[in-house]
Amino acid sequence: ILVQGLPMKVAAAAILASVFVSGVLANFEACKSQATFDVRMCKSHMCGDCTLAWCMESCQKLQEEHSGCRCEDWPEARKSYSGEGMKGAGTYGDVGDYSK
Hints:
single chain; mainly alpha; 4 helices; elongated
């Protein structure tokens, strides 16, 4: 059974969703080595889920090697691996007895 007006509502919702998504992604600009950066940074366990200090340090070094690159799914405010939203922020090297 087709509910009258439903297809128009679905179409309108799809259009609004695509406008929203394109507006969010419009600010992303790929860098020269984006494909490599995506594999090594954006889609890796090391830079995504690993909680070891070695992982964080390695990802910071990787970011330096690919300066200007960022992951497409990072918030606009996050310009680098160490930027806003970094996993492990405040847990290594800058807290505890040795941070003073």
